[in-house]
Amino acid sequence: LFLFAVSAFAGAARGDVHHNSVRRGGVHRSGAHRCDPHRDTRGRIAVRVRVWIAGHYECRTERVYHPGYWEERVEPAVYERRRVVVTDPRTGEWWYEERIVLVRPERRVRRYVPGWWEEVEVRVWVPGRWVWVVRYR
User: Fold this and answer.
1) pLDDT value at position 73?
2) pTM
3) At 1, which helix (H) or strand (E)?
4) Residue 98: which pLDDT band, with cuts at 50, 70 and 90?
5) DSSP label at 32?
6) Residues ≥6 apart with Cβ < 8 Å to 134
7) Phi and psi for 10 in degrees, rounded to 5?
């Protein structure tokens, strides 16, 4: 602890320390700054640099909810060919005939269609931005 305090005081006395950092050759060298260079296993110096990424379009998948709704439709009338008994009112005779008869008249039907989720692909604009990347020297 004593050696650390002495070395920090000595650097400040020389005048090369400014806010716990030293600026040499355009590279900001500091122990507490986010632009601090580090050496990798091959001895290269890694430096974080700001890079502009231009705006672009991206295709993204989004889940969209379609709410339920009431559907009204018309069901057509139902007819059938049936064998019916026919009587003559004057003579009282009867016989069978095939006739087309109405079984169910036309009607309106209301039914509820429940909501559902769907995945859709949407093309969106992503604006340009500055990002920090690591470059090796």
Assistant:
1) 95
2) 0.39
3) none
4) very high
5) S
6) 46, 47, 48, 49
7) -65, -40
